[in-house]
Amino acid sequence: MARTRLVAGNWKMHGSRASNRALLDAILAGMGNAGAQCAVCPPFVYLQQVAERLRGTPVAWGAQNVSEHAQGAYTGEVSAAMLADFGCRYVIVGHSERRHLFGETDAQAGAKFAAARAAGLTPILCVGETLGEREAGRTEEIVARQLAAVEFAGGVLAYEPVWAIGTGRNATPEQAQAVHAFLRLRVPPDTPILYGGSVKAQNAAAIFAMPDVDGGLIGGASLVAAEFLTILRAAGAKGS
Ligand code: PEP
Q1: Cα–Cα nearest to 107, from 143, 75, 151, 142
Q2: Ligand 1: does its nearest atom lie under 6 Å from the Cβ of 218?
Q3: Whole-model pTM above 0.85?
Q4: Is residue 219 in contact with ligand 1, taking CB distance under 6 Å?
């Protein structure tokens, strides 16, 4: 059975009520039969707005983070059950910005993944090496370690080399394929494995053409409807 192809937009800490509305309107107007699944992950405060706009449409939505705790005195945190409460489908777990800027550990990513699954959400687990780790030949060791901290089932995996995120320097299709093939052997066979890191309209088709790349997790380019739609179509066109 063919694996799900997915393009998910990580809006990071961008947006406003007005710009979100305009972006979603443009995506919905332009997507047609994209041939791949599509999701957007806005900041927490806009989830309700996005959920309402996307109700009854083919575009799913998700959160960018989730607490590993079920409830309690965790000021500023949002639980998986709260997200599930109003229809959230995906949640990004272990994004490199969470790991590097906010000190999230492999174990926390594992706990967040489990919390998301327990609430019926589909976690998108991010793994990836820094430039220093790649140059030291440690890419496989790092992604294997990050993955080993997670009881991986029922999720989406995203290979996101840290040196490619927001830098304009994407992995080559061959670099992405090599790591995806390595990861493919370590997750259930139906797991979609997305590539993330400076995917743009102009490089998406070549990256998505690789046999083990099932779509993308898109940061900056997901904020521009025309770019995002071209990337979505590139994922949809794969193998067709
Ligand atoms: C990301 O934040 O997950 C990402 C891939 O960002 P960008 O596409 O901007 O590199």
Answers
A1: 151
A2: yes
A3: yes
A4: yes
